[in-house]
Write a structure and sequence with these properties.
Layout (H helix, E strand, L loop, with lengths): L1 H14 L1 H10 L5 H21 L14 H25 L6 H10 L2 H14 L7 H27 L3 H44 L1
Helix pairs in contact: 1-2, 2-7, 3-4, 3-5, 3-6, 4-5, 4-8, 5-7, 6-7, 7-8
């Protein structure tokens, strides 16, 4: 089954990033469906981690867990990175298309999926003195994912190391700018709705 092979190919990508990301783009060894599956699994594990992590390592109270917030947080960060990266690399002679960026970023999340579940299980059976192993795994999941996103950007756009560093920094800045513009836009829309509602009430009464 092609979809199954595309999911399995994520294991190749995380251990052989240069060949893996090259084949994702050039040989079409992956797909957007598989990438979005990895994003969905990341969202699921983010929520599961908050609810099931051992109390010694869980800083989130169950009553504060909001599934929608977890979904929106991961999804928005994923989309913001891809959109900001595409906008920027389009101006910097990047060779990756929007679809290529979405796929590469989705596959870069595989370490988060593979590591976070064992972390949850580990947290249920260790003491606070053994917490070093838990925090080491947590750090590894973030560093490995960041490493893959970086090299995914490099291979997808055929950039040099230095240009990739600059691109990633500018992409993060771009994400902040997009978020600011988005919040400003929604604030203006909210004020317009409030104004129209007030006028309507005045006319009605």
């Amino acid at each position: 089954m092609r979809y199954g092979r595309e999911l399995k190919y994520g294991l190749h990508v995380i251990f052989h990033p240069f060949d893996g990301f090259w084949d994702l783009k050039r040989e079409h060894r992956g797909s957007l469906a598989a990438a979005l599956t990895f994003v969905a699994l990341t969202i699921f594990l983010t929520t599961l981690e908050k609810q099931c992590t051992g109390f010694l390592f869980n800083e989130v109270r169950l009553k504060d867990v909001n599934v929608m917030v977890d979904i929106l947080t991961v999804a928005i960060l994923y989309v913001l990175w891809c959109v900001a990266n595409w906008c920027l690399t389009s101006l910097m002679d990047g060779e990756g298309k929007m679809k290529d960026i979405f796929i590469a970023t989705g596959y870069a999340l595989v370490p988060m999926i593979l590591i976070r579940l064992p972390m949850i299980l580990l947290s249920l059976g260790i003491t606070s003195q053994e917490g070093t192993f838990y925090y080491a795994l947590s750090t590894l999941s973030y560093v490995w994912t960041a490493f893959l996103i970086f090299f995914g950007t490099m291979v997808t756009h055929q950039y040099s190391f230095g240009k990739t560093v600059l691109t990633c920094i500018c992409t993060i800045v771009g994400m902040g700018i997009i978020m600011f513009i988005g919040l400003l836009f929604f604030n203006v829309i909210q004020q317009m709705i409030t104004f129209v509602t007030t006028i309507y009430k005045e006319l009605r009464f």
